[in-house]
Write a structure and sequence with these properties.
The complex is a heterodimer of chains A (101) and B (708). With 101 residues, chain A is an alpha+beta fold. Chain A contains four helices and four strands, in the order E-H-E-E-H-E-H-H. Chain A has helices at 17-20, 46-49, 67-78, 92-98, and strands at 3-5, 26-28, 33-35, 55-57. In chain A, the strands form two sheets. Chain A has a two-stranded antiparallel sheet. Chain B has three domains: 66-132 and 371-512, Rossmann fold (3-Layer(aba) Sandwich); 142-333 and 522-554, Dimethylsulfoxide Reductase, domain 2, CATH 3.40.228.10; 583-707, Barwin-like endoglucanases, CATH 2.40.40. Chain B has 23 helices and 27 strands. In chain B, strand 4 and strand 5 (77-79) form a beta hairpin. Classes of the chains: A alpha+beta (101), B alpha/beta (708). Chain A: Ferredoxins are iron-sulfur proteins that transfer electrons in a wide variety of metabolic reactions.
């Protein structure tokens, strides 16, 4: 069990999460970030840091979101580590507003 | 809807003592988070505490006093009033005192909550005044503390934040990312600055995985490695002669002593290749500032005390203390000017008291210890011995005694609480106020209560006020308010308290002790060790008094110390139970068992709560090396039995290269509910004490494993 990034990140990818992670366990692709479950220490520091609330502890995921546990595991293994914040994706702020965050 | 934030501090027995912000909505705590402004907490908590509000509002909470209504251990209770509970306790205590004397009453506690007024010493004045048995609490770091006192004194050691300046960091028996995780960013920063990180651990832990160099070591053999490092450093002239001449005693004797501890000898003991031992010693000596952080586990074997003695000699030998970020880190708690005497009140004790060690609770209750008078009443708070104490089978038999009157103050129906005659409801940290030291950083903290106590739960301070009243104790000392206790808990006139006032502390939640700035402070650059000679004592003066437990862990009492002779020079003591030291035993039980802290539990705290069980796994898992699993026909994920002559427990097998061949890892803290047949790992751990400070020998156990 660990924390996972969900599809709420897709299209925003603010990467605020990487600024608080003490163990560099965030990876990324063009769409979103992923948490490496092997290195995540479950500190939860990234949860309030995410502007769109995309990160959740795995045990609290609703059934339809459970797939993100495996997606995070797989994509973290396939993608590079991100160690510092990047600019959000274009349209991220509008999406965040639309989400009412 | 009104939303407010309250600043508090984590209550747990963890070095990090985080600053916690609790969010309240209409008076209810809805979330907790790490204080982003606290230099050590940095906005993060951990898997234990992230959802602390769920612990507080758990439907498993004990919220009212209760009396046992079924057989001992059945967990059947009936609600009673506080007045009834107190009257029954007071009447029983008085009867016991009249018949057998107060020493037939045994308090039992540790750091289930670590606050200064509600924690380690909260019950000491009352039990000292009664003249009850002294509970010698050598749960954690007691062997290390005795060894430390004998070598470098009760120094705070290296400022944990100064690790950013270190160039060579050895985490020795310390899984930082699971048990000290807020220290990690300082280590990580040092790594970014070019430091090399070495982890010495039988297990490739989360921390070891992120190290530059993981050195697996056979359990209980760390002392051989430390002695061999000194052998190499002295032989090869890697010492700092100026520092040794000015600030140490006993170098010539130490040099002679380490002659025999060759790297070849240490390699045979530890399983570490000879060339790695050379490399470690040479790099450590040649890469200033070099720092060692020892974990609690380093003491948990037959020679645990002398292991810490040897490790504590290393920094002086190479002059590591001269540099900011160089030296040794164990317990910065010694930096805090706590008014320990005022908390424990040893002046109230009768001249002689009976001392009963925490690890001997089982034999003390069953009568195996042949106590006269026997223990008639056990008063448990801040502790769950059924989950954490060796000889679990004996403890269970002792707790089941019909003539034993057991009182337990708790949050939950723990494996111990089930055996209570009277069960009392205790508050969580959100419901109580306290002032907090830390044993992992240099910030004094204040815990503002966030909510009113739930049900009829009371803080430990109030529990002992009520008990004193019920016992007819009029002395106003026993009826001080929490605010008065806090005001008297510290030596506010101490130079390190300069600039710290209670009002600011309450408001901000934490203040750094008035120590020199992290970037400038090398605590023993000029010696000044708090030892009898003022120097680092390779040859210990205090060894002459024999083995002792620091009085802080024994209600302030210094009588009746065990006093076994102690060799004044560091040396290696092999494990009691290892294939090399006990070949006959190893013929039956060939595997070494260790029981480190579980990542998701704090000792046995959280072993009953859904979020942490989801992380840790609902059932106890035990990790074996593939070679040990294969030869026994053990398949990952299947049930196994782990056993020795003391007992047996069941678990699920995890098979992993992360453990050394010959080593079995059972993370501790699980309750009986998570072990398929009841007993947990401490059914197998031994009664033996380590050589110093009566530390446990939990990492010094041989077992066999078989499919269930």
């Amino acid at each position: 069990m660990t924390y996972v990034v969900t599809d709420q990140c897709t299209g925003c990818r603010y990467t605020e999460c990487v600024t608080v992670c003490p163990v560099e366990c965030f990876h990324l692709d063009d769409e979103m970030t992923y948490i490496d479950p092997e290195n995540c220490i479950d500190c939860g520091g990234c949860v309030p840091a995410c502007p769109v609330g995309a990160i959740q502890p795995a045990y609290l995921l609703p059934p339809e979101q459970q797939k993100w546990i495996e997606i995070n595991r797989r994509r973290a293994a396939e993608t590079p580590v991100i160690t510092s914040r990047l600019a959000p994706l274009p349209g991220a702020d509008q999406r965040k507003m639309a989400l009412g965050r | 809807m009104s939303r407010t934030t309250v600043v508090g501090a984590c209550p747990h027995d963890c070095p990090d003592t985080c600053s916690i912000l609790t969010t309240l909505e209409d008076g209810k705590a809805i979330a907790v988070r790490g204080n982003p402004d606290h230099p050590f907490t940095r906005g993060r908590l951990c898997v234990k505490v992230n959802n602390y509000q769920d612990r507080v509002y758990s439907d498993q909470r004990i919220l009212y006093p209760m009396r046992r209504s079924g057989p001992k251990g059945s967990g059947q209770f009936t609600r009673i009033t506080w007045d009834e509970a107190l009257a029954e306790i007071a009447a029983t205590f008085k009867e016991i005192i009249a018949r057998d004397g107060a020493q037939a009453i045994l308090p039992y506690s540790y750091l289930g909550t670590q606050g200064i007024i509600n924690g380690l010493n909260v019950g000491d004045p009352l039990f000292n005044k009664l003249g009850a048995a002294v509970s010698e609490r050598t749960f954690c770091d007691s062997g290390s503390c005795t060894a430390y006192m004998m070598t470098i004194g009760h120094t705070p050691g290296v400022d944990p934040e100064a690790f950013v300046h270190s160039k060579y960091i050895i985490l020795w028996a310390c899984n930082t990312l699971s048990t000290n995780s807020h220290h990690w960013p300082f280590i990580e920063q040092a790594k970014k600055n070019g430091a090399k990180l070495v982890v010495i651990d039988p297990v490739r832990t989360r921390t070891a995985r992120l190290a530059d160099w993981h050195i697996p070591i056979r359990p209980g053999t760390d002392g051989a490695l430390a002695m061999a490092m000194m052998h190499i450093i002295i032989k090869e002239g890697l010492t700092d002669r100026d520092y040794i001449d000015a600030h140490t005693v006993g170098f010539a004797e130490l040099a002679e002593r380490v002659e025999d501890y060759t790297p070849e000898f240490a390699s045979a003991e530890t399983g570490i290749p000879v060339e790695d031992i050379y490399q470690l010693a040479r790099e450590y000596a040649a890469t200033p500032p070099a720092v060692v952080r020892i974990g609690v586990a380093v003491e948990r074997h037959a020679g645990g005390g002398q292991t810490v003695r040897a490790i504590a000699c290393l920094p002086a030998l190479i002059g590591a203390w001269k540099h900011v970020g160089g030296g040794l880190l164990q317990l910065p708690i010694w930096a805090f000017p706590v008014n320990w005497g005022g908390l424990m009140r040893p002046d109230l004790q009768p001249e002689t008291m009976r001392v009963i060690n925490s690890w001997q609770l089982g034999p003390a209750l069953t009568g195996e210890l042949a106590l006269d008078p026997p223990i008639r009443s056990l008063f448990v708070y801040n502790a769950n011995p059924m989950a954490m104490v060796s000889q679990q089978g004996k403890l269970e038999a002792g707790l089941a005694r019909e003539d034993l009157f057991t009182v337990v103050s708790e949050h939950f129906m723990t494996d111990t609480a089930r055996y209570a005659d009277i069960l009392l409801p205790a508050t969580t940290q959100l419901e109580q106020k306290d002032i907090m030291f830390s044993w992992g950083h240099l910030y004094l903290s204040y815990n503002n209560p966030a909510i009113e106590p739930l049900g009829e739960a009371v803080p430990n301070t109030e529990l002992f006020r009520r008990l004193a009243r019920a016992l007819g104790i009029d002395d106003p000392f026993f009826h001080r308010s929490d605010d008065e206790m806090i005001a008297q808990s510290m030596d506010w006139g101490s130079p390190v308290m300069e600039g710290i006032d209670l009002e600011t502390l309450k408001e901000k939640g934490y203040l750094r002790l008035n120590m020199p700035a992290t970037g400038e402070w090398a605590p023993h650059r000029d010696g000044n060790f708090p030892t009898p000679t003022g120097k680092c004592e390779f040859k210990s003066t205090l060894a002459a008094t024999g083995n002792f437990v620091v009085p802080l862990f024994r209600q302030g009492y210094n009588g009746g110390q065990s006093g076994e002779p102690v060799d004044p020079l560091p040396h290696y003591i092999a494990p009691n139970e290892s294939p090399a030291s006990a070949p006959d035993l190893a013929g039956k039980y060939p595997l070494s068992l260790i029981s480190p802290k579980s990542h998701a539990f704090l000792n046995s705290n959280y072993g009953n709560l859904p979020a942490q069980l989801a992380q840790a796994g609902e059932e106890q898992a035990v990790i074996l090396h593939p070679s040990d699993a294969d030869v026994r026909g053990i398949v990952a994920g299947t049930p196994i039995r782990i056993f020795n002559d003391r007992g047996v427990f069941e678990a699920f097998a995890t098979v992993s290269q992360d453990v050394m061949p010959g080593v079995v890892v059972a993370p501790a803290g699980y309750w009986q509910r998570s072990n398929r047949r009841g007993p947990t790992v401490h059914a197998l751990t031994p009664p033996a004490f380590a050589d110093l400070g009566r530390a446990p020998t939990f990492s010094d156990v041989l077992v066999e494993v078989a499919p269930s």
